[in-house]
Every structure is written in structure tokens, then in C-alpha cells.
Amino acid sequence: MLYPQRFTQFTREHADTVAALLCGLLLFLGWFALHLGALGLALLLLPAAYVIGGYESAREGLTTLFKEKELDVDLLMIVAAIGAASLGLWRREYHLIIDGAILILIFAISGALEGYAMQRTERSIRSLMSLTPDTARVWHQGREEEVAISQLKVGDEIVVKPGELIPTDGIILSGYSTLNQAAITGESLPVEKTIGAEVFAGTLNGYGALQIKVHKPAQSSLIQRVIRLVEQAKTQAPPSQEFIDRFEKGYAKVIVVAGILLATLPPFIWGWDWETTIYRALTFLVVASPCALMAAIMPTLLSGIANGARQGILFKNGAQLEKIGKVRAIAFDKTGTLTTGQLQVFQVISASEYTQIDVLKAAASVEFSSEHPIGKAILEAAGDLDWVGAIEVQAIPGQGIVGIAQEQEIIVGNAVFVQKYVTNLPEELREMAQSLEQEGKTVVWVAKKAQAPLLGCGEGCFDVMGVIAIADHVRAQAAATITRLKKLGIEQIVMLTGDNQETAHSVAKAVGIDRVYAQLLPEDKLDVIRHLQQQYQTVAMVGDGINDAPALAQASVGIAMGISGSDVALETADIVLMADRLEKIAVAMHLGRRSQSIVKQNIVVALGFIMLLLVGNFLGNINLPIGVIGHEGSTVLVTLSGLRLLK
Q1: What digits encode the pLDDT tens for the residues 603-621?
Q2: Is pLDDT larger for residue 78 or for residue 153?
Q3: Residue from 117, 115, 112, 102 nearest 18 by CA
Q4: Distance of alpha carbon 3 from its chain centroid, rounded?
Q5: What pLDDT was estimated at residue 490?
Q6: Is 464 helix (H, G, I), strand (E, B) or coil?
Q7: How far apart are CA 638 and CA 290, in angstroms?
């Protein structure tokens, strides 16, 4: 029973190949019977070859004709083959039936080869879908229960053992491990993850067991969004393909009209005999068909989409792969795009009688309960130090925070706030703070109540301990990315930010951007993009936040950061960088430009073959089988050419 099942499965998966093989076998047997003079057997075998080899093409052609009222290239091939067979029966020149059967055979082989070529792209895309397991282990009432991924709910706690795939996006509750995220984000090296870190479905767990809390529905996970968007990209034709589709519909009608004229006028104009006239008209139907032209674009773009997905670049459709190769200007958001979006302590400067550790410990003691990003940055920097949390903590929004630690009152805040408690800020610290602020850093002052009344100061005086400079760090690859984009010939690179001028220019200088627009609202960013489009036509925008969404939507190509990006930005953008790696922008542009180059090459090859075969047909130098080989050969050639983008 096993072998019939395997045979049935094989024939189902390789139906085109089986049909082509049977067609070839029947054609050979028919030719052999005709060669032996067994005309009756030949006329039985050859029609069977026509039916088996041409059934699928005839079905598709007739479906298009009756449902869409359009002529199809497949139908033209069948008409040409049947015309050759009819001419052979009429003139009793049975070799013409063989010619028609060869046409059917070559067309069937071509269809099978194109199918296998496109399956390579399909496999690359489908490989995304095998990245997540079907079930997950849920920790429920003290024991593990295996449930389907689709049944997971937000708040469920799942267990992932070493070497297993992460079943859905979540936050680590306990455990430490390294995760291979290459399939999702394109990162080549495993990433260390511990409590509080986010993990993504489809990534491979390393050596540690993890307990993970589901924080979003399984269908909203990063990998599921990737799969849905790639599937959409397969069904959405880019503008160039839509143009070719429209061209093909009109072109097919022109071919039919020209074929009818070619089949009727030459005997009256040039004195051709009817056999030659009809034969050349049939050959014309074959060689003039735009199969290669139709295959010039989509295999290339789908291959580029699959290539990008493997490298952590998600193109939502083929149109964006086309456009990214034409970009002349690009705008970057600052926070979360050119920078990490996470504040860190840049520098600690202490007054003469204190150490940097003293300053950090004092600041951490009052910031320990703060939700402010600056407070979190200070706590992270003081993580290994021995400090005690303050009591009676009071935060003054926009100014600073006050608390009592180890019976000492401590204040942390900006210069204006601290000056309410301190008579004079030390001049040396003031100059250093101003210098840091000019570089775009945020400076907070730390002071504590003086142990003894200072000279010229009352009992309530505070003593300045030092300053802490906080900064949003520039991404490590940002400067190299800007340099690479300039080498690629991008004419204008600008930075858009809602931040102040000093910070904006500091970051722009660090990464090599000359033109900066600062203190922008979301609608201001939109206006800048429109202005750039008036100058450069095709403009890309790179962003990550909700405030970037209008500009991302307006840009010719919107590029979102996949990890740090907001859901609104991800939905609005045309391209998503799955690992937040800016250098992938240059890779995406290279893919876009290479795809355009290959598409142009394919169109030239397709049109060149058509012209060459048409000239050969009118000069009488080619017969029907040679015309079919040239026509189908060019189709397979441009399809395989498009698959070069898979590498």
C-alpha cells in the first residue's frame, strides 16, 4: 500500500513533469509508428500526446478566454499546434503533425522547468513558515501542558528547553540563554537573553531553559507578521508587472489579427502557396508570443523578496523592491533609529571632595523608584554598587527629585532646580556641564545636605557632589551606514527629529549627516518629506515611532525598525529591518538596484529573441519546432536569470 501512495503523491507534486514525460513518450512512439508506415497507430498515439501534453495549457487558455474575455498565450500555443496538425492531415504531410506535437512537448517541458524554478523561490518563502513549532509547553498549576500555538493566550507562561524553537513572542520570566535569531532578524551571532528580555517566535534557544510569559497574541508575533506580509507580496504585482500584464492583453490581440492577415494575404500579394502561408502564420503565432516578456519581472522580484527575508529585510511587496533601487534622497529619524533610543550614563564628574562612585550611589538612592528614563539610566550604571534606597522621595516633574538616604537629604535634577538649594554651583563643574550640554548630552546635578553649615550659608545649605551626563547612544553602525549610502550615490541625506538643535547637531556630526531638521512635530516631518520629493522624486524615510508614521506613509519608501519600532510604524512602512540593523538599508538598496538591472536584462533578452525569431520566420529560415525551442528557451532563460537574486 505504501508504493501506490508514494506514486500518487509524486504524480500530484510533479504533475507537469509527468505530463511532459508521457507526451514525449507518445510523441516518440507516434513518430516511430509513422516511420514504419503504421499510419493508423500513429494517428492514435499522436492525438494522445496532444491531449496529455496540452491539456493544462488548453484549460488555462479557455478559462481566461471565457471568464476574462481575454486571449491567453497558452491558447495561442494550442491553436498553433492544432493548426499544424490540421494542415498535415489536409495535405497528407504527416510530419506536420509531428511538428505540432513537438510544439506541445516543448511547451510542456518549459512549463515544468518554470514551475521548478519558481518553486525555489516558493521554498525560500515557505521556509519562514516552518520556523515555529505547532505546540508549546504551558506551565499551568505547577505542571507542564502541551497546547497548540493557536490556543495560547496573553499572560500564559511557557517553558522552552535547550535546543528548542521559541514558539511565540514573549518576555523571559526566568532563565538565561543565548538565542540564535538569524532566521528572524538576520543577526549572524547568537544573542544573550535573560530576565526581562523579549524573545521572538522562530528563534532557536541555546543551552539554557527559559520560562517565558506570552505578552501578545500568537498571531501578532513578529514571525507571523513576516509570513503574512511575504504572502501578500507574492500576490501584489508591482507597477512594472502591471504594465506588462496590460501590454500582454493588447499584444495578444495584435498577434491574432496579424496571424489572420499573415494566413490570408501573402498568396495574393507575394504569390506564396497556401501551405507555406499557413505554416508561417502558425510559426508566427508561436514566436511572437510574449511568454519570455511575461516572465521577465515577477521571478526576479520574488527572488529579491526571498533574499531580503533571509537577511532580515522584509519587503512588503515587489513595488518597494523596485522603488528602493531608485531612491535619490533619504531621511532618518534620530531617536531609536540613528540612536538606540535607550538613555545611558555617558560620564560622571565629581566635585573635588567626592568620588564618581559617591555621586552615582547618591543619585541611585533617590532614583530607585523612578520610572523616568534618566532615573533608569542612573540605576543601570549604579547596578553593582552598594547603595540604599531613599525614603520620603518626591519627584518634581521636569525639574528633579528629592529624597532622604541614610538620614541625609539628597537632590538630583537640572541646574535651575539644584540652585534652589545650593548658593553657588562650582564654576569648574558649571563649565564642564555646559560643554556636555553643547554636545547634546543631558546633565543632571547631584547634591546633598551639608553636614555642617558652610561659610556664608545657613543651616539648610546643600553641598554639590557632582554631575552626571546622560546620553542616547548613537548606533554603532550608523556612521558606516551613512558613508555607505553616500558611496551608493544617494544625493541627499537628512535627519529629522523633535529633539533640540544642540542634541540633533551633535548626533548628526557623529554619524556624518550635514543637513538637520530639529524640533519637528509629526506634521513638520511630513512637510520635509514632501519638500524632498519635489526635489528628488523618490525619497526614503527611516523611522521607528508613532510620530514617524505620517512621514513613513508619505515617503516613496518607508523603512521601519523591526524591533524598536512601534506597531503603527511597522504597519505604515513599506520595508522593515527585522534586527534594527541600519547597514541593511544599503543591502536593500543594492538588492533593489540589482533587481532593476536583471529585469532590464531580461526584457532586452525577451524582446531580442522575439525580434530574431520573427525575422527568421519571415525569411523562411526556421520551422515550427525551432521556433518553439527559441521561444520557450528564452522564457526559461529569463526565469532562471531572475532566480540569480536568490543568492
Answers
A1: 898 888 888 888 887 776 7
A2: 153
A3: 112
A4: 42
A5: 92
A6: strand
A7: 12
Q: Which of 201, 180, 209, 183 is nearest to 192 (CA)?
A: 180
Task: Over range 214-243, report the average pLDDT.
Answer: 61
Nearest to 642 by CA among 339, 352, 294: 294
Cβ atoms of residues 124 and 136 within 8 Å:
no
Q: How far is CA 170 from CA 140, 203, 217, 218, 318, in A?
A: 16, 12, 10, 9, 31
**pLDDT value of residue 459:** 46
Q: Quick one: which of 455, 447, 443, 457 has its CA closest to 412?
A: 447
Instruction: Look at the pTM and tell me if it is higher than 0.70.
Output: no
pLDDT in tens, 366-399: 888 776 777 888 888 888 888 888 888 887 766 7
Question: 494 with 523: CB under 8 angstroms?
Answer: no
Least confident of 64-73, 75-84, 194-203, 392-401: 64-73
Q: What is the CB neighbour count within 10 angstroms for residue 36?
A: 10
pLDDT tens per residue across span 401-446? 888 888 888 899 888 888 888 877 888 888 898 888 877 778 889 9
- pLDDT of 532: 92
Measured between alpha carbons, how far is 48 from 587 in angstroms, rounded to an integer?
51
CB 172 within 8 A of CB 215: no
How would DSSP label each residue in 381-446? HTTTS-----EEEEEETTTEEEEEETTEEEEEE-HHHHTTT-S---HHHHHHHHHHHHTT-EEEEE
Mean pLDDT of 141-168: 85
* Three-class DSSP category at 495: strand
Grid look-up 500564559 returns: 156
How far apart are the C-alpha atoms of 302 and 220, rounded to whole Å? 24
Residue numbers annotated as active site: 333
Residues across the chain: 647
Three-class secondary structure assignment of 160-190: ECCCCECCCCEEEEECCEEEECHHHHCCCCC
Amino acid type, 136: A
Question: What is the number of other CB atoms lying within 10 angstroms of the CB of residue 608?
Answer: 12
Q: Which residue has the cell 501590454?
A: 247
List the Cα angle 322/328/333 in 5-degree steps. 100
Q: Dig out the grid coordinates for 17 from the structure.
A: 513533469
Q: Which of these, 328, 306, 157, 300, lies nearest to 240 by C-alpha position?
A: 300
Q: What is the mean pLDDT of the chain?
A: 78
According to DSSP, residue 448 is labeled E
d(C-alpha 541, C-alpha 553), whole Å: 9
How many CA atoms lie less than 13 Å away from 175 in the CB half-sphere?
Answer: 23
pLDDT of the residue at 454: 45
Segment 194-222 shows an average pLDDT of: 81
Does 494 score more than 90 pLDDT?
yes
Q: What's the start-to-end Cα distance of the chain, in Å?
A: 41
Nearest to 65 by CA among 249, 284, 292: 249
**Residue 419 contacts residue 425 (beta carbons within 8 Å):** yes
Amino acid at the residue 365:
S
- What separation in angstroms does the CA of 343 have from each of 111, 339, 346, 358, 403? 57, 10, 9, 21, 23
The C-alpha cell that represents 141 in the structure block: 498549576
CA distance 56 to 114: 14
- Nearest-angstrom CA–CA distance, 235 and 227: 13
DSSP state of 95: H
How far apart, in whole angstroms, are the C-alpha atoms of residue 623 and residue 88? 14
Q: Average pLDDT for residues 273-277, to the nearest whole number?
A: 78
What local confidence, expressed as pLDDT, does residue 113 receive?
Answer: 64
DSSP for 343-387, written as a single string: EEEEEEEE-TTS-HHHHHHHHHHHHTT--SHHHHHHHHHTTTS--
